[in-house]
Design goal:
The chain is built from two helices and no strands. Helix content is about 85%, strand content about 0%.
Length: about 60
Amino acid sequence: MLNWALIFFIIAIIAAIFGFGGIAGAAAGIAKILFFVFVVLLVISLIAGALKGKPPSV
């Protein structure tokens, strides 16, 4: 999911360079939403792993 956020961020940067403000804004918004969803899922995963009681495998 972080990969998709980075892809939309790159699309937003390219669209901003070429002057497509609406597309750049939309792509940046999608990238921001995907990034926050990724962070929430990461936190949930870490909490679930901590509640299991197993040490994280490195």
